[in-house]
Automatic annotation (TrEMBL), chains A, B, C, D:
GO MF terms held by the record: acyl-CoA dehydrogenase activity; flavin adenine dinucleotide binding
Pfam families for the chain: Acyl-CoA_dh_1, Acyl-CoA_dh_M, Acyl-CoA_dh_N
The protein's name: Acyl-CoA dehydrogenase
Organism: Daldinia eschscholtzii
Cofactor(s) required for function per UniProt: FAD
Start and end residues of each Acyl-CoA oxidase/dehydrogenase middle domain: 144-246
Domain Acyl-CoA dehydrogenase/oxidase C-terminal: 258-409
Keywords: FAD, Flavoprotein, Oxidoreductase
Presence of keyword Protein biosynthesis: no
Length: 450, 450, 450, 450
């Protein structure tokens, strides 16, 4: 809530946003978190889980709309549909949304819809907007983003192989996708698909296109949903889908042939900030559960409450520091994105992408450990939260790819700093000479052992 | 297999054990690992998962018996039923069993039966042995060990509350248990239950008794199975069970009233070695999957195979070192247990209990990271393996309880080493005096700034 | 320099401060860093090291004054002597000062003088200010702060034992101090001494007083200087000093008897920010040396430059992230101190106190490792920098004391969050009931095994 | 001492070795450790430190000889001069030697003499042995090993540049060396020098030769000694030395031209075991000092002894586990070396080389932290010990070079394990087919959303 905004950004948050933030926090704590297990119960069992539409989600959506909590993610200034928050302001809200599994969807701020709406708003033509952006903005349908493929190293997007071929007035798609998150939901009506329309283009970043494929198009097979540790994440799910001569009108292409890379680049920045802030929220949530546990009067191993034992308060303190540091990294990225746009903020976004999931996982794992058996089970939100966030170290490229990229970028300073240090060393030698001085070197009087 | 036995223990492994070890390895690699997904498929879906008896397990059991791979866990010398292996020798076999989910059961070496069989063999009377030990040894039934309770800090076993009251010729049990592993299996016929028969005894370690309760006794309710990071571990499962005036004949008591602590203490040692060695095996298995992945010719992000990227080979090397170090810690405990018995080996067992799961989790997590999305999904054994081993940092007391205990024990040397160091310091002063020397102290010539 | 100010605070830095920051950066890089080895050479060898006054320091001080770089640490608003920078602004400058060993003294911003000047400015009377603050502000003398004692656990300041007794118009001091940093310098003319004037006061925080003791007072013995790893830090040094009936006029007492705690509390906050930002600077400096090394064309083990080897670029990237996160933690504290004062900022200051040295040590150690032998030797600034910063994990209380304190503070939320979570759980139960739902629990159909 | 030999190797240690081990332990604890500060005091200050021969070392050597503690390092079986201990047995002794700075020299088991004696014993001709090995074995002179060079990446030994050219009946040496450990000692009479005699040989491992150069040969200049975190390690020292047309008789060549690599390979194995075991000893020593500190009745911050505070006992326990695991890694290498020779043991030696220093540094750093200021100062052996061991992560190749090498070696299994796993997967498919089964895949009933 607004009282907890880090001082370093407090003055950049408008009064309106502070008010909304307080409403978000209250909505999440009082409506969404209690509803999370209800959603699970409404999803049901077996195959029914993939045909489910938990009614409580619609109830929450109605409440959220009434409270003015809708589409807050759509950044101020860029879109007329935006409720008018900066990336910083929405980031602070996203942290609260991250404490609940259902809150993002309840406020129409859930991935992958958010990124997909941004793509449509930014790159879609008016017909595409009318058909897909409008119902997405209204929360009437959901969507999926199909990029990752099972048979290649998809951390490198140039490896993508799904074929998009023009035949007459249509595009024909052939290939496979997986980790198509959201494809399990029966309300998921539209796939935004990345594929290769020009695989022989010499520029490996011009081979790709992005195209809109209605979920009910002939030739699409949903093979299965991938599980994350033991969770199926129904009804959302992570689909493994194949395309067998799937035909869509040529007008479904977004922006133009060969512009796929451009589109996904624009899509990733804000989404990473959202994911990062939600993960911060999940970490705060885990820390609060841990605080509950270590003060539980029924849990007194060896005659003392857990908080009085050895390392437990140190876990709390470290978690506090690590969360706070990670949050500042994200907020710094959000501020820079607000001021200078996503392209100028690549470094800061990458820092958040790498640091935040590792931080949240460490905090949640400490909470699991404090809880003992309950921590790994269905009796706390911890294990499920850990599993979800574990995927963020892999999604959109594993940590290591980002670290290598960041290392290379930082290393671009190598030549300049080398020259500076060499110049400094030379100046030292001059100063020593001027002052008729010699560095002290131990043993320099031993000239030899003759 | 025998060729990979660490040199430090090679000569302590009999030729017979080496031969058996090679047979175990072959059986696991060629029969059990391929069967693991078959077991999963045979378990089925929904409620059926808890009524399942995968036929392939019985096929594997028959093969194992034929190969002479049966009850290898039962230590040489202590039991006439033992096939004659030392803890060290079985430990080496358990490592191979740990590579497969089904291998331990296939060779009748699965927890919690192993510990339960040891309890019955060591502390059971002849009638108890005839009724329960015999069919367990034959692999005809399975068993559970009911100790942990949901409402107390069960890392401290003195907190246990399930009541065992004598009424006439019966004991009456009331209370709740959870993490009753194995209780889900329809073949689980017998519960070994720890409770309090004398809650007011001044000696907190004499309040407990252990009693045999057939699974089909009236008054028992299985409420549910606890999940582990989304996995239900069916049909084995981790039961949450209540006892409501459950009555068993007085003759079901093991060893005698008030001897519960003694029994569980004796039970834990070997089991921890088994768990530890199986975890080592799981780590080796994960490392091999990782080696497969990083050499996969189809996975070439940024034009290079994964093994050629940044840190990947360092992960492999670190995993190698860490696994090897952890294995030696376990084998040292096994050797000491063979030579001096479990009581003399508490420190070494505790070291294995703490070090091995942390090591295995780190190795498996690296493999997950190398695999990307497939690593967290059902397409590799990695995520499930990680989840299982994560519980070992909590089961039988969390790491922190063991570390505190080990710290206290090590600290018992505190007084002695303090005296030694003070004596050494004094001797130094004498030597300096004798030699008319002063220690060099920088700045000691500055007597004051007068 | 100003171009590198994190975006999150850019708009809070005045144009004047930005200009000064650029001048500081240039002064440090072009004058101070080249002078560091010259200072070392001028200090000399043996006992002479403690009588030394390296002339180049005075040259740098003159240059700094001319450039307007003097006493920047004294916060805006609080002191008429202040050059007018906020804690945030000076913090950014302190980062640059931290790249050089001599830069802080050259700009009269060196510890412990900075904290001592704050004490005198805040709590000193006019006579005390005239006699000691004025020459300190001018850089004519230096000072030491004497608090830590050799024979007690001084991480807990209530343990302090040096006795301050009033006798007539004088105070008489008896006791020992060590880690009296700066006491080695012949220009150190004044000690600010913490001791006990009322050891029997029931309030353990009212027993202490702070008193001014000229370095040349009779009864003071400087026994020796403590080394840090192998460094003596001459002529500054870390003194081990005893007081034997040292008498000073009663008017030397600061603020009043029993107000020692109040004084040191006020002293610590800004100093910790300064130390933290200087450590950030040292880490950046180490990272630049590392960049030089990994691009050195002469260093090509196994045919490749270091930057092309395995993990090296990942070290660079991690260092970048960790430094940036740590810096934001400090800047957030500085901003809050500017807005709300040091008392409101205890948590944030403690976070910086703990996080920054650990971060800097990790970064510097990576640089040492990249350099090989040169890294641990006198040929780079790395080893010395590491040793200095290692003391910051101990000075003013070890990390663990701060972590425990922070853990306790965070845990104050325990009761409130427990109540919230219990309320949420109850609401969930109501919602489930209202919707006539049951949570799915695996195995819940197994009622028993009758 | 013998009572602490890990059980896993106890039976492999002869009674004679056990007796000697007890004598070593007693000698180290009662004679050497008290003498360590005396050695420091006898070394003196300034230039005198490099001309020093602390008399107490000779006294200790005399005592050691009398106790039969002399040259224990020389492995049984390989040398007639050997006192007859296995690598395992001497390893256990080396651990005790590692607790004291002077103990290795006092028993004539100090590096680099040990490695140099092995080179001479193994590869030297009779004349070389008579002139140099004999006085070294007697402890009459000391030696240095000159390999590392300042201007190249010497972690890759093929980069070495010092030129060894034959001219008539002499070899002429030109070039520079540094980290020539031991070269500071006035008793150091002989350098064993690695250089290039055939820099154009196509085989990069045949370009090098090893040659004996008396320390008093004309043309040698000792420029200075390198410091290690501020320590000069006088009189031993780490020399920076240049060779300017240094001429030695052709008969000084060891083994033959082009055989330098072969010689240094043979030299490294045992030395790494020695270093590792000494580091284990240093870690044990640090742990004991830590135990003293945390039980010091005078050190009671916040009313409790240090051992009662938060994390301290966990530090003790972790240190215990980590030391024990690292020791077993070294002992496993020693056993394998005893059984199969150094060449077969490369992997195990590399594991020890990497794991042990990292472990010892972590343990010592915890002890430093427990001591507070005293830990980094001259008042404990901790800081100096840390600095010495820090160099072991760099000496003979940094950790990263060894990890890459180990990773590559482990990865050689890649093809084989890939084939095995693929075979297992195929067998699974067959089994599923045979049993008419399908894997359960969540969401597999969703064929499409038509």
């Amino acid at each position: 809530m607004s009282a907890r905004i880090p001082d370093i950004v407090k003055h950049r948050v408008s009064e309106k946003a502070k008010k909304t933030l307080d409403i978000v926090a209250k909505f999440v704590e009082e409506e969404c978190i209690p509803a999370d297990p209800v959603v699970d119960a409404q999803i049901g069992e077996g195959s029914a889980r993939w045909e489910s539409h938990p009614p409580i989600i619609e109830e929450l959506k109605a409440k959220a709309k009434q409270l003015g909590l809708w589409n807050m993610f759509l950044p101020k200034g860029h879109y007329k549909e935006s409720p008018g928050y900066t990336n910083l302001e929405y980031g602070l809200m996203a942290e609260w949304l991250g404490r609940s599994k259902v809150a993002s969807e309840a406020t129409n701020c859930a991935a992958p819809d958010t990124g997909n709406m941004e793509v449509l708003a930014k790159y879609g033509n008016e017909a595409q907007k009318a058909q897909w952006l409008k119902p997405l903005m209204e929360g009437e349908i959901r969507s999926a983003f199909l990029m990752t493929e099972p048979d290649v190293a998809s951390s490198d997007a140039t490896n993508i192989q799904l074929s998009i071929k023009k035949e007459g007035n249509e595009y024909v798609l052939n290939g496979s996708k997986w980790w198509s998150s959201g494809a399990g939901d029966p309300r998921c009506k539209i796939y935004i698909v990345m594929g290769k329309s020009d695989p022989n283009n010499k520029d490996p970043y011009k081979q790709q296109s992005v195209i809109l494929v209605p979920a009910n198009t002939k030739g699409i097979t949903i093979h299965r949903m991938l599980s994350v540790y033991g969770y199926d994440d129904a009804p959302h799910g992570h689909g493994h889908i194949s395309f067998n001569n799937v035909r869509v009108p040529a007008s479904n292409l977004v922006l133009g042939e060969g512009r796929g890379f451009e589109i996904i680049q624009g899509r990733l920045g804000p989404g990473r900030i959202h994911h990062a802030m939600r993960s911060i929220g999940a970490a705060e949530h885990a820390l609060e559960w841990m605080l509950m546990r270590i003060n539980d009067p029924k849990k007194t191993p060896f005659g003392k409450q857990l908080r009085e034992h050895g390392v437990v308060l140190e876990w709390v303190a470290k978690s506090r520091i690590e969360i706070d540091a990670a949050r500042l990294i994200v907020l710094n990225a959000a501020v820079k994105m607000d001021d200078l746009g996503p392209k100028a903020t690549l470094k800061e976004i990458a820092q958040a992408k790498v640091l935040v999931p590792q931080t949240a996982l460490a905090v949640i794992d400490r909470a699991v450990q404090a809880f003992g058996g309950a921590g790994v089970s269905q009796d706390t939100p911890l294990a499920n939260s850990w599993a979800l966030i574990r995927t963020l170290r892999l999604a959109d490229g594993p940590d290591e790819v980002h670290l290598q990229q960041m290392g290379r970028n930082e290393n671009k300073r190598g030549k300049e700093v080398s020259q500076k240090i060499l110049w400094q060393k030379e100046k030292t030698e001059q100063l020593l000479k001027q002052n008729n001085l010699k560095r002290f070197q131990p043993g320099s009087n031993i000239k030899s052992r003759l």
